[in-house]
Each structure stands twice: as structure tokens, then as C-alpha cells.
Design brief:
Shape of chain B: globular
Organism (chain A): Marinobacter nitratireducens
CATH topology of the largest domain in chain A: Rossmann fold
Largest sheet of chain B: 9 strands, parallel
Keywords (chain A): Amino-acid biosynthesis, Aromatic amino acid biosynthesis, Lyase, Pyridoxal phosphate, Tryptophan biosynthesis
Distance between the termini of chain B: 26 Å
Largest interface: A-B, 38 and 44 residues
Low-confidence stretches of chain B: none
Strand content of chain B: 5-15%
CATH architecture of the largest domain in chain A: 3-Layer(aba) Sandwich
Radius of gyration of chain A: 19 Å
Bound molecules: pyridoxal-5'-phosphate
Order of helices and strands of chain B: HEHEHHEHHEHEEHEHEHEHH
Helix content of chain A: 40-55%
Subunit structure (chain A): Tetramer of two alpha and two beta chains.
Distance between the termini of chain A: 47 Å
Number of helices of chain A: 17
CATH superfamily of chain B: Aldolase class I
CATH class of chain B: Alpha Beta
InterPro entries (chain A): Trp_synth_b_CS (IPR006653), Trp_synth_beta (IPR006654), Trp_synth_beta/beta-like (IPR023026), TrpB-like_PALP (IPR001926), TrpB-like_PALP_sf (IPR036052)
Mean pLDDT of chain B: 96
Low-confidence stretches of chain A: none
Pfam families (chain A): PALP
Oligomer: heterodimer
Structural class of chain B: alpha/beta
Number of domains of chain A: 2
């Protein structure tokens, strides 16, 4: 059941303190407040600056390779036997995922602010690679914080970052995954706040990050909307995207929020199953709380301690989610669902075998859910899956699950 | 007048500076926290900042982050920390206690329930690292209504406008974070601190406590000279970590650390 959102409602979000309803905001220690307020002021100015937007668009076209195709998966559609399945090919972007849209934008911001040192957190390593890439291109010093467990399961991306000249810091604290990487990135930022720009990789963090990351990723949805009209002659009936922190999903959803006929599905990591407690699905099974600078749905225990998460995919292994998703859930505009590790792996195999497209394990969650969804829809309906990244980085994980040494 | 205001006013009348030690509740074990609080008082503490452990202490360096992990490994919860204060109050009705921590455990407990329980137990102030006054508009009045002083942070990066606004939302004292960094980093620059604190004093009548980077009698005296009190954290927590096996030895070590600071601060008087 969805509510009707209007352009006016959306333009008032977030409010001037970064709130999406009760979610979002700016919950950080005082040392960072000045930097966040400067960033907000500069971003709101540059957002309206044609030169800044032109520089962003130019990089997206010539460096990232946009627009990414909207591809009709004909064979997959036939095999699934329901709605038409289309794929938004963010996996074809330079560096192999949607993450680069955001790092291009934030690196431009850093340049405008005169910051020479860049830090980032990463889970799967895609955001780390995308950050290291723009830093290499702009000659910026780059430090990437990555949970020690993720350093192991995403070894390929760790090496890519090193080749690109970034320093990768393995984070040994807490659960040794994405949330702990974000803690250490925040600690570094507070310690080097004068010369350092923190490129956050998803629509989480304190205001203005959820706003600006969403704006940079919204190119996905804008293109998809136009391509749907051009190639299919209509808007899609449903959009499906995986949700870790939520940047590829919000990028896809945002330009469609006022299109009432378009159903939105955000797919969280169900891990070993929601009932098992071993998952990373705060929207499906968590409750509102405050972490990493914003109020949002979280996985936590009854005492407010952040819970450990589990997902086969490092990029979804996060106990929080962007605050705008929390708002979209509560107003009923988007549906948040989950699929298990096993279902995601099936999604990976299906797309690989049937279309010759190897999706990232994160994106495979969207694939898996979309296949179930499409099967129950009419043949004249249309589902778009955001293939947020390519699966090369996950080959080791898959091989390991298959018991193969490579 | 709150207990914090009273203590700080008395000290001021005597020309003395407040010694404010911080320890993490539940570290090394929940059973020992109350005893350690009494030790801090015997060693010269005027006010105690009692840390509420959190799973993701983003503003803390490794020393306090590991103290949180030790406390949480014994299941230390916010409710338990409040109970520790209640226990402490059975024999100490004078020393103010400030709970210092992160917002989410309070949010999970419910702000009203938390404020009620804290006030009932004899807590005096609440310092929430990740709660700037902008986000505290609903919460801070719940505290004030129960005579719990909301204590906010000021930082080297805080602009004059914000210093004034934050001070208006604060009572008891304001906490000046002496450098840009996490707890436990050793980079305090006393001249810079003196300049900024002088500036803060010009903008607010509230007492100014300075924390981060105070690790011995020398830094305590240097910072005490320009402020109303010093907050000592990581060096105490580190001492707890290194002496956790033997409670008597731990108490001696804490006393040996605090006592010279007390003397150095008091030597500034008159
Ligand atoms: C390919 C890919 N998709 C999705 C995600 C999840 O992030 P978000 O939810 O912000 O899109 C990641 C994160 O690493 C990723 O690498």
C-alpha cells in the first residue's frame, strides 16, 4: 500500500537539519560539526552551480561511461515466465559498480573545498576501489578503512586499491566488518579534520551525506526512467534494488518516488534467514536507533548495543541503512524485503548462466527477489533490476562455497 | 542548585580546580565499578564521569574502545550502570556523577524512562558524545526537568556562535575537547587550549572543564591553570587494563596516578 508523494513533499526533504521525518539528522561529536556544516553549505551552493554540474556530468560520460545500458533480458524473461525483466547495467561502469557515481561527485566536492587527503570506508571493497580510482586520477592521498574480515573475503579488491596507490587499513576492532571500518574512518576524520575529506560510500552517515550521495546516485534512476520511456514506451511497474546502506537503491528509486504506479522493492540481506538472527536486514527486522551520525532502522540488542550482522555479501553486511529508506518504509512508499544467502547465490548462478552476466553478490540479492516477483506478474508488465555491480570480486567466495581452490 | 554546580562553586570559592576522572562502567568487571568509584573519590576526585559502554564508540581511541569491549563482554547495560550509581550513592551523597556515553543505549531504553531512572539513582549530569544541542531539543528538557545537568562538548573547531548557543543549552559545566582527535591521543597543546578556553570564558559564565590528553600532574596543572577543571580518562582506563588482575594493586595504581594530579592542581590555589 503506497502513499502518494508529491514533488512539494519531496523538496522539503531532508529538512535543513537533515531530517527525513524522524530519521536522519546529525549525531556526531562536536569536533565534526563545523566541517559538516561547511560541507552542507558548499554542497547546496555547488548543487545549483552549472559549472559543478557540468563537470560532474562530463566525468560520468567520459570517465565512468554513462549512460549505462538498460538491457532487456529476453531469455531470462522467457525462462521466468512472467513480467519482462530489464537490467540496469551499473556493473558496466568503470570500476564495476554504481559506487563510482558517488566518488566522482564527492571528489569534485573535495577539490572545490581544497582538501588533499581522502579517507573512505569500504565493505565489499567496491567503494574503496572507486575512491582509490578517483584519487589516482586527481593525485589525492587516499586511505581506505576496511574490516579485517572483509580484507580477507575481498582480497582482489584490496589488491586493486593498493595498485591504485591507496593505503588500506585493516580494522581489527568490533566485528571487523563494514560498521567498524566506518567507526575507524570517523576516528581518522576527527583527528585530521582540517585537511581531510571523508568520502562516505553510501546514503548513511550524518547530514548532508545521505542527501548528497543520493543526489549523485540519482543519475541511475533518471536514466532508467528515460530509457524505459524510450525503449519500452512506458514506465516500469516495479524496480528492484539491493539495500546495504542503500545508495544504489535510493539512486534508482528517487526519480520515481512520485510515479505512483511504480512499485519499489529494496532487498536486504537475509543471511541465514531472518528467523536465525544471522542477517543484515534492519528494515525488515530492526528498529529505529542512532548510529554513525543518523537516526535510522538498526540491528541492535535490547540494550541499544549494535548487533553483529551476517551476509555472504560484504557490501550488504551492515547493521544500519540510509535514513531516507527508513522514511520510505514508514510512509509505505517502498517495500523492503529480504532474500537469504542461498537464494542470492541462486540468483547469481541464474543470471550468469541465462544471460552471461555475472552480478556482484550484493546485486544478486536483487536478482533473486526480482525473479520471484516477476514470476507472479503479468507478461505485459515490466520489472527493472538494478545490477549494481559485477561479480568478479566475488569469484573467490563462490569458488570456496563450491569447494574449489583457485 | 545542582550538586555539580554546588561542588564547582565551592571549589571556585577556594580558588581550586576540579579533578574529574573518567572510567568506563563495567570495566574490568561490573562488580568492581562502585568500589573503583570510591577509590577515585579517596584519591581526590571532585566529580566522576562514568562511561556507559557502547559497541561503537566512534569518538574514542583504542584504550577506551577496548574498555567498552571488556565491559560489554560482561553484559554491562545502561540499566546496570544506573544501578551502580544507586549503589555508590548509599555511601557517597556528595560526589557528583556524570554519565558519559553515546546516544543509542539511551534511545533504546527510552528517554523518559532513562531520565527517571538516572535521577532516581542520584546521577547528576548527562554527557552524550554524539548528541549536539541541535538534536537534543526534545531530550535535554527531560534531563533539566529532573535536575540532571545536560553537559555538551565544545571543540577546537567550534565557532563563537556555536559556543554561545551550546553554552545556553548546557548546565553544570561545558566540556572542552582539547584537540581534534579521539580520546587517548597524546597531542594536547597547552597554549592553544589556554587561548581557546580564555575565549570560551568570555562567552559563557559556565565553568569549563577540559578533557582529552591529560595524563599526569604536569599536564593537569598546565590545563588547570587556564580552566575550571580537568577531565582525566584514557590514562586511568589504561591503568585499569594493566592492573585488572589484582583489585588492591589496581586501587593503589589509580591512587598513585590521581594523587599527584590533585596535589598539582591544589598547588595552583592562592
Ligand atoms: C555492487 C554493490 N552493490 C551494492 C552495494 C551496497 O551498497 P548500497 O546499498 O549503498 O548500494 C555494494 C557495497 O559495497 C556493492 O559493492
Amino acid at each position: 500500500m503506497s502513499v502518494k508523494l508529491t514533488k512539494e513533499m519531496l523538496s522539503a526533504l531532508p529538512d535543513n537539519r537533515g531530517h527525513f521525518g524522524v530519521f536522519g539528522g546529525r549525531f556526531v561529536s562536536e569536533t565534526l560539526m563545523d566541517s559538516l556544516m561547511t560541507l552542507e553549505r558548499e554542497y547546496l551552493r555547488l548543487k545549483e552551480d552549472p559549472d559543478f554540474q557540468a563537470a560532474f556530468d562530463k566525468d560520468l560520460a567520459h570517465y565512468v561511461g554513462r549512460p549505462s545500458p538498460l538491457y532487456f533480458a529476453e531469455r531470462l524473461t522467457r525462462e521466468t515466465g512472467g513480467a519482462q525483466i530489464w537490467l540496469k547495467r551499473e556493473d558496466l561502469n568503470h570500476t564495476g559498480a554504481h559506487k563510482v557515481n558517488n566518488t566522482i561527485g564527492q571528489a569534485l566536492l573535495a577539490a572545490f573545498l581544497g582538501k588533499k587527503r581522502i579517507i573512505a570506508e569500504t565493505g565489499a571493497g567496491q567503494h574503496g576501489v572507486a575512491t582509490a580510482t578517483v584519487c589516482a586520477r586527481l593525485g589525492l592521498e587516499c586511505h581506505v578503512f576496511m574490516g579485517a574480515e572483509d580484507v580477507q573475503r575481498q582480497a582482489l579488491n584490496v589488491y586493486r586499491m593498493k595498485l591504485l596507490g591507496a593505503q588500506v587499513h585493516a580494522v581489527e576492532s568490533g566485528t571487523r566488518t563494514l560498521k567498524d571500518a566506518m567507526n575507524d574512518a570517523m576516528r581518522d576524520w576527527v583527528s585530521n579534520v582540517d585537511d581531510t575529506f571523508y568520502i562516505i560510500g553510501t546514503v548513511a552517515g550524518p547530514h548532508p551525506y545521505p542527501l548528497l550521495v543520493r543526489d549523485f546516485q540519482a543519475v541511475i534512476g533518471r536514466e532508467t526512467r528515460q530509457q524505459s520511456l524510450d525503449q519500452a514506451g512506458k514506465l516500469p511497474d516495479a524496480l528492484v534494488a539491493c539495500v546495504g546502506g542503500g545508495s544504489n537503491a535510493i539512486g534508482m528509486f528517487y526519480p520515481f518516488l512520485t510515479d505512483e504506479s511504480v512499485e519499489l522493492y529494496g532487498v536486504e540481506a537475509g543471511g541465514l534467514g531472518i528467523e536465525s538472527g544471522q542477517h543484515a536486514a534492519p528494515l525488515c527486522a530492526g528498529r529505529p536507533g542512532v548510529l554513525h551520525g543518523n537516526r535510522t532502522y538498526l540491528m541492535e540488542d535490547e540494550n541499544g548495543q549494535i548487533a553483529g550482522t551476517h551476509s555472504v555479501s560484504a557490501g550488504l553486511d551492515y547493521p544500519g541503512v540510509g535514513p531516507e529508506h527508513s522514511w520510505l518504509k514508514d510512509v509505505g512508499r517502498a517495500n523492503y524485503v529480504s532474500v537469504t544467502d542461498e537464494e542470492a547465490l541462486d540468483g547469481f548462478r541464474t543470471l550468469t548462466r541465462v544471460e552471461g552476466i555475472m552480478p556482484a553478490l550484493e546485486s544478486s540479492h536483487a536478482v533473486a527477489y526480482a525473479l520471484k516477483l516477476a514470476a507472479g506478474m503479468d507478461k505485459d508488465q515490466m520489472v527493472v533490476i538494478n545490477v549494481s555491480g559485477r561479480g568478479d570480486k566475488d569469484i573467490h567466495t563462490i569458488a570456496q562455497l563450491d569447494g574449489i581452490e583457485i | 542548585m545542582s550538586r555539580i554546580e554546588q561542588v564547582l562553586q565551592t571549589l571556585k570559592g577556594q580558588g581550586r580546580k576540579a579533578l574529574i576522572p573518567y572510567i568506563t562502567a563495567g570495566d574490568p568487571h561490573p562488580d568492581r565499578t562502585v568500589e573503583l568509584m570510591h577509590t577515585l573519590v579517596s584519591a581526590g576526585a571532585d566529580i566522576i564521569e562514568l562511561g556507559v559502554p557502547f559497541s561503537d564508540p566512534m569518538a574514542d581511541g583504542p584504550v577506551i574502545a577496548q574498555a567498552c569491549e571488556r565491559a560489554l563482554s560482561h553484559g554491562t547495560s545502561l540499566r546496570q550502570v544506573i544501578a551502580m550509581v544507586k549503589e555508590f550513592r548509599k555511601t557517597d551523597n556528595e560526589t557528583p556523577v556524570v554519565l558519559m556515553g553515546y546516544l543509542n543505549p539511551m534511545e533504546a531504553m527510552g528517554y523518559e524512562a532513562f531520565a527517571d531512572a538516572a535521577a532516581d539513582a542520584g546521577v547528576d549530569g548527562i554527557l552524550t558524545v554524539d548528541l549536539p544541542p541541535e538534536e537534543a531539543e526534545d531530550v535535554a528538557p527531560l534531563f533539566s526537568a529532573r535536575n540532571l545537568d545536560p553537559i555538551f562538548l565544545l571543540a577546537p573547531t567550534t565557532t563563537d556562535d556555536r559556543i554561545s548557543a551550546i553554552s545556553e543549552h548546557s548546565s553544570g559545566y561545558v566540556y572542552y575537547v582539547s584537540f581534534k582527535g579521539v580520546t587517548g591521543a597524546a597531542k594536547i597543546n597547552v597554549e592553544e587550549v589556554a587561548e581557546k578556553v580564555g575565549h570560551i570564558h568570555a562567552l559563557t559564565a559556565l565553568p569549563v572543564g577540559v578533557g582529552f590528553g591529560i595524563r599526569d600532574a604536569e599536564t593537569a596543572a598546565a590545563v588547570g591553570r587556564v580552566s575550571d577543571g580537568v577531565i582525566v580518562g584514557s590514562v586511568l582506563v589504561d591503568t585499569i587494563a594493566r592492573n585488572q588482575a589484582d583489585t588492591d594493586q589496581l586501587k593503589r595504581a589509580l591512587t598513585d596516578l590521581l594523587h599527584p594530579m590533585r596535589e598539582a592542581l591544589d598547588s595552583l590555589a592562592s
